[in-house]
Specification:
The structure is a homodimer. By secondary structure, chain A is α/β, with parallel strands linked by helices. Chain A is built from ten helices and eight strands. Chains A, B: Pfam families: OMPdecase.
């Protein structure tokens, strides 16, 4: 099973949580509020507590290339991947960012779709255009919400097996563990369901267990 | 004339520049690289050098409401306005952010259109949907690029006089001072043309002069 834990709150000390979860999860996603509130050096301090797995800076970048590279350069040495929005396009934007990340041996992850109801107002209607961008850009990974597994399935069909699909929205936002993986995602991203638990390690183990059961059920169904 | 200076680089000390420009510009826009690299307290330190005009945090927010509010809360006490993307829609996103900013007496500025060539790939094609979002949301201000004055004019026609239009793209990105104001913008945002000058005050005065001349010419033409 593939589980990444989202750390967003700028008011919490996550060091011992990271250490507790290190051997049972596949990575950590650091949110913009955390990185801006605690400072970018905090990413290095957290990583020193667990130097394995995939570390992702969830900057949700959506600017011209020059500014996205400036922002990325502040944190990139402490992470393996950076998240940007597909809607800003390639020319003068994601193309420059991908080249910059490639030169550093780092991964680009592009948001294809979002999980909140407002995603229906613009994002969803632009999905075919965003998939064109992703198809041409060929980033290492994309983000698509666990709350809407049919979007994951259609993206997997469209983009094939070479792209890594990361799927937030499990837990607090309503999706059940395993549903996104059943639909074709590679990683499920879980935040508050684990980080707000009194026993984050037990909560993470329960998520992994639920993922396993769900995947067995959907494999039987297939 | 209406001139806002963009401060983006995280590697520069902008204190004396802010003081030098304070009495001749209408405000400052603080970029995400600056805020993340220098820490949010830096916004307070800069503002203490010029406690007038409009101070804007250009966070280019594009996330669910919960995360946008967390990020905004880190810097909002030091600024008058915050920039977010129209692309993320209202429900569970910009609606929550606007309510949060209203409760603090702060302004929401929504990106309607961008200046780089890649904006043609997705953003431009989604413009009618984004204008629906803006029309319903009624933010204090919107962002539309000086590099494409016809977009500014059509947005002004569509949204009327009540919305404030802020226009980046003057200088390094190619638009001439005054062109966006002629097209209907309220403020032009200028970065490197002023901040990279050996004499930023002289450069800002030259921009204001060029704005004035351009506006006189376009009024004569109208």
């Amino acid at each position: 099973m593939s589980l990444i834990v989202a750390l967003d709150s700028p008011d919490r000390e996550f060091g011992s949580l990271v250490e507790d979860l290190c051997d049972i999860v596949d990575g950590f996603k650091l949110g913009l509020p955390l990185l801006m509130g605690r400072g970018v050096d905090y990413a290095a301090r957290l990583r020193s507590r667990c130097n394995r797995g995939l570390w992702i800076a969830d900057l949700k970048l959506a600017d011209i290339g020059h500014v996205m590279k400036l922002t990325t350069s502040l944190v990139v040495e402490h992470v393996d991947a950076v998240i940007a929005h597909g809607f800003v396009g390639i020319q003068g934007a994601l193309g420059e960012l991908k080249e910059f990340l490639n030169s550093l041996g780092k991964k680009l992850v592009v948001v294809a779709s979002m999980s909140h109801p407002g995603a229906r107002e613009v994002y969803d209607k632009a999905l075919p255009l965003i998939l064109n961008v992703i198809g041409e850009l060929e980033p290492w990974g994309i983000v698509a919400p666990a709350t809407r597994p049919q979007v994951i399935t259609s993206i997997r069909e469209r983009l094939g097996d070479s792209v890594t699909i990361l799927s937030p929205g499990v837990g607090a936002q309503g999706a059940e563990p395993g549903a996104a993986i059943c639909a074709g995602a590679d990683y499920e991203i879980v935040g508050r369901l684990i980080t707000s638990s009194n026993d984050p390690r037990a909560a993470a183990l329960a998520v992994k267990d639920a993922q396993k059961q769900r995947l067995q059920a959907c494999k039987r169904g297939a």
